[in-house]
Amino acid sequence: MATIIRPGAGPKARAQSAVPLMVGLVLVIAVCAATFADVRYAPVLPYALAYVAIVAATWRRLAPVALSPAFYLSAYLCVVAVLGVSVGDQLSGAGGTGFTDFLLDPAISARTASALFVAASLCLIGAALVRRRPSHIAIGDLLDLGDLSKYAKWFLLIGVVELAVLAYIVGINEIFERDSRLLGRGTNIETIVSMLAVAVLVLVGIAFFTSKGALRFLSLVLILGFIAYFVSMGSRRLALVPLLLLLAYVFARRGKLSVIPVVIAAVGAVVTLALPLHFRGQASHGLLPYMASLSSFSLSPEMLATSLNNFVAGFKITAVTGFQSAKIPTEALPISLSPLDGNVVGWYEVAPLLRINRYTPYSAIGELINYGSLVFVVILLGLGIVLGFSQVLNDKLLTSPLGRLVAILALGLIFMFVIQSSQYNLRSVVRYIYLALGAQVIGVVLVYANRALHRREGSRATT
């Protein structure tokens, strides 16, 4: 069971403070360096210092930060801010940004970075309002889900169903070859199934690492099927595949980890992050054209710069969305936040307005900036409250192996929300949070029902 740690009690609690504070200080140092390089970025520094102060004031309630969704989002937004003001202009011209590869006015860059630091601070404040007590669980205990080999057949069945549904919804022909890079029809069902593909790949990976013979062979076939699907999408989610398989490997070994798999996964992630950018430059799209183009792919310094520029592009997209685009109609906000199907709420009528160009949508954070200060503050503070509530639910889930599996799934979904928040529409990314919360609520119900059942059986045995 996760044990409660009182603020400041013991070396573990003190050690937890090092991570968030060091992250904050490194970010401030980076902002200082950018300020010395160009004094026009000096207005960002007070917001960066305020962020560090808020981290220092909230880390106790959010500990351990390794399991804090709010800290994930706040740290990511600050990293985007720092990279935007420090290397954004230097990477201009490297490509890979969906026609947003341009120089920003330093004043706009400073306003954007400041807004990102404010967003990060509001998120931490909101989470701290909800989660009043820290908890501690060792990472090794978190990743030890027990003997999962007995579930291998069920994991494989889930994998077969997931791939079959994906192929049916998207279409076999579109997966293999199509004219447009964009894949799918954007319905809620398709979005949910696509999101679940990430989690299901982990389950299939667990089956591969815990089984032998025919089951392992079937697991390998399914893994290759999922990789083929991600390749055909030309999506940066392809870069998650090595990391997801590493996570499956750790689960299969009950939380044990060695250096070699980590190195292999890290190298694989770098390569697979560059591949989608190469695929997007092809004349035709889909699995067959992309595989045929591999002979011309090379991981050159230019390609690495393009990959980094693709990540930093989130800063420019947010800047253009928030400060240089036409005012977004107010009625678009409830549509973007609604969990209902797009056809029901009228999403497809407003979606064309929320794009920089055909290939680049507005960013979620940029949309909130565009709506004005009041909406920006209220939504970011509310988002922090939701992420804090998510961590509270995970506190309840971490007390059992089943609950830990659900908690890790929820963290993975929220991580997808985090890394896409600076480059995709608010509606596109907020659904990850809805899905994560739904999984957590169901998980908490199952954990408590299972606990009640065991107590009842124990009572009967005693009687």
UniProtKB/TrEMBL annotation:
The keyword Cytoplasm does not apply. Coiled coil: none annotated. The chain crosses the membrane at residues 21-39, 45-63, 70-88, 108-130, 151-171, 191-209, 214-231, 237-252, 259-279, 368-390, 402-420, 432-450. It comes from the Bacteria. The keyword Transmembrane helix applies. Keywords: Membrane, Transmembrane, Transmembrane helix. This is O-antigen polysaccharide polymerase Wzy. It comes from Microbacterium allomyrinae.
